Amino acid sequence: MRKQKGFGTIYMVLAGVILSMAVGGWFYYKDSQATIAALVAQNVAFTIQFEEDKLIKQQYEDDAKLQKVVNDTLNAEFHGARVEVEELRGVLKKKNAQGKTRDIGKLAIQKPKAFGKVFTKGTTKAFRCVELASGAKHTADELAATRRSQINELCTELANPNYLPY
């Protein structure tokens, strides 16, 4: 029997192909493990970011609820201030004993000193109402007012929250 010449070469080529497939498989395995590790790290980062985003969203919702409460409170106070302004307009438009509407300018000319005191006192109280409506803190005297002579008649509910009319 005769030995064939190319048979050993085929084994060598086949062994080379198998060896190159094994080496390629080993590199593929190492690369895929590195990719998996990177994706796991990225997933952890995304999970942490997602949890932080949920907390931020919850904080926004809580802030929106608080803002609504504050806004509703301010609107109620503003409505009360409007009602008091309308009451004041009614006081200023009263008619005197002769049936004529009050003329503040004529009163100021006739009795300038008395009018000045009344006007200054009223202006001071009106400015204090604006300050309180804007968020200023109450003074101890405003909180302790119990008699009618101690209160601010222009905005009693706002300026003297502890005053109960009798």
Summary, kept brief:
The chain is an all-alpha fold and 166 residues long. The protein is built from five helices and no strands.
Overview of this protein structure:
This protein is 75% helix and 0% strand. It starts with 6 loop residues before the first helix and ends in a 7-residue tail after the last helix. α2 crosses α3. Among the domains are: 49-102; 110-166, no CATH class. The chain has helices at 7-92, 104-110, 112-133, 140-144, 156-159. The chain is mainly α and 166 residues long. The radius of gyration is 44 Å and the shape is rod-shaped. The chain is built from five helices and no strands.
Secondary-structure map:
Layout: H1 7-92, H2 104-110, H3 112-133, H4 140-144, H5 156-159
Helix pairs in contact: 2-3
The arrangement of helices and strands along the chain is HHHHH
Q: Which stretches of 5+ consecutive residues score pLDDT under 50?
A: none
Question: Can you give the helix content as a percent range?
Answer: over 70%
DSSP E strands, number:
0
Brief descriptors of the model:
single chain, 166 residues, mainly alpha, 5 helices
